[in-house]
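**User:** You know discrete backbone vocabularies at least as well as I do. Would you mind producing a protein record, from residues through to fold? Write it directly below this note and I will take it from there.

**Assistant:**
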Amino acid sequence: MNSRSKIRLGDLLVEKGFISQNQLEQALADQKSSGRKLGHILIENGYVREDDMLQMLSKQLMIPFIDLLQYTFVENPAGLLAEDQARRFRAIVLSQGEQGLLLGMADPTNTFACDELEKILPGSIRLAVVRESDLLKTLDTIYSKSVQSIGPAVETFDRSSQSNSSALVKRYRRYQMKLYMVVEHFNAGTLDEIYERFDKKGRMLPEGLYYLNSWLSKDGDKCFQLMETNDSALFQKWIKNWDDLVTYEITEIGQKPGD
């Protein structure tokens, strides 16, 4: 991957004259209270234009700034990076060639995301910077071919076999398991800590509670998990591992009408 060092975005914007020191301090105070990303706050407050910020990062990091709305994909990027990983790290595989993978990222200064993507993706990686809004629209288009939406979750829980809801219902009748949709609401400012704990300890599910599949919301502030168990009390045991970072909604899923 391109050599990189930790970049303080706010200080760099001040240094390059895009924002004032006072604007940075106001944005940092907002970030501390809300847990939102600094770049989002600066753009939403009108302190800096998104394209100006990304062009600056492009020059500072010596990586290309790519307009996804004008970009032509030669290969389907969904085959190399799973949707949950693409949304989590705000990244997309743009191309694959002799020089390795060209990876578009909304925030190429996120060293944690870069390190994790190096572990996930094969070969060498070159970075490019892209608009986050365009990235999310592109992810919607690309991954809608394999997973349409959270609505038909029962039909799409198994992407590899494309199991339909009828087969799923028969499976749970046979094993007498109950199916649950778990909605995890990430507390403000805890996303990095959540993924760090997950990377170190996994889901920490108690015996008898089983994970099937999951989907992230477009905003990345919640996760929908499909789980199975015949003992709903196990959820409370599992939640104790995460309730300092996440709040939960748990709903038992019934049969699809007509099955």
